[in-house]
Amino acid sequence: MQSSLFPKTKREVSKLGFGAFGLKGVFGSFDESEAIGTMQYCWDQGVNFLDTARHYGESETIVGKALKSWSGDTPFIATKAECIGPIKQWGIPQDVEACFPKGHITREAEISLRELGIECIDLFQMHLYWPNWGVEGHWLDELNALQEQGKVGAIGVSMPDQRHDAALPLVMSGRIQSVQAVFNIFDPTPLDCLIPICAENEVAVLARCVLDEGGLTGFLSKDTQFAADDFRADYFDQGPRSLYLKKVEALRKFLPEHAGSLAALALKFVTKHPGVTTALSSMNIREHAEMNVAAMKEESLSSEAFAEIRYYHRWIHNFYSSKSL
User: Fold this and answer.
1) How many CA atoms lie within 13 A of 105 on its CB side?
2) Cis peptide before 131 (omega within 30 of 0)
3) Cα separation, 164 vs 146, whole angstroms
4) Which CATH architecture has domain 3-324?
């Protein structure tokens, strides 16, 4: 498994990360024991980075069960403090006191430690950050205090939808160690500013939505239907879907010369730049995990293909806007 050094630590982490969003059931129902088995399969394959969150339902509890029955090398565990307040906080900047009032981050960390069954969280992130919060305040003091107490290793932020550049002042302040942001073939804009500036400041970049909720794997068709409780029930129809399918179809020109599958192409694209620490993908389904692990064993994407995809296949859209308000 390809790996990278998590900045300002001595930990080597896998370039492919296990995203635990699916453990909330947002992509449909799943069997908990099978999910735990798949998680441990990933760890056995060298996928040692796992990202979860307090917001992901019972995810931390399930991860905790997997850790308890795991006898291999300890994986790198990242989780996030859940923000509170009105749902519009995901789409419109709010005051930090409304989302992370004093003491909230500390309480969230204590809950995460208990649910995960560990003594130290390798990376503790705020599940939201807006630039009007500045680069100092009680929220950052609490994160630093958790580090000093040995309850948290690195600290970082997860950015709402595609507004990743809003994290740049915080990155350049030197106060955090990671930024999580949307980054995929359709939205390569983190390559323009966020990724190089994070690299200059030794800040980890966690790429999420790297398969665009599965759309970049090519599974979607005009007849695909989703269960009502599936997060993607209307996600692909805002484009409209016919346009989405056209954009995905255009990527098939790179197969099989540059990648064995569309999923492999998407993963190879987001992991090409050395400034990307890990690429997160929901992998609680064994088939999806095997597909992603296989993709990471392929040769690196050529510089020529990478450049062509970056400049000519970008399709900047924000399908998350309707989920935020």
Assistant:
1) 30
2) no
3) 25
4) Alpha-Beta Barrel (3.20)
pLDDT for the residue 311: 95
Phi, psi of 195 (to 5 degrees): -65, -50
Q: Indicate the length of the chain as a whole number.
A: 325
pTM: predicted TM-score of the whole model, two decimal places: 0.92
H helix runs in the chain, sequence order: 32-44, 59-68, 96-99, 104-116, 138-148, 168-173, 194-200, 241-249, 262-270, 286-295, 303-312, 321-324
Question: Which distant-in-sequence residues (6+ apart) come within 8 Å of 308 by Cβ?
Answer: none
Pick from 105, 101, 93, 21: nearest CA to 55: 21
User: CA 225 to CA 218: how far, in whole Å?
Assistant: 14
Q: Which two tokens stand for residue 20?
A: 């635990």
Q: Give the domain ranges of the chain.
A: 3-324
Residue type, 15: K
The model's pLDDT over 84-136, given as tens digits with 9 standing for 90+, comes to: 977 777 788 889 999 999 999 999 999 999 999 999 999 999 999 999 999 99
pLDDT in tens, 135-173: 999 999 999 999 999 999 999 999 988 889 999 999 999
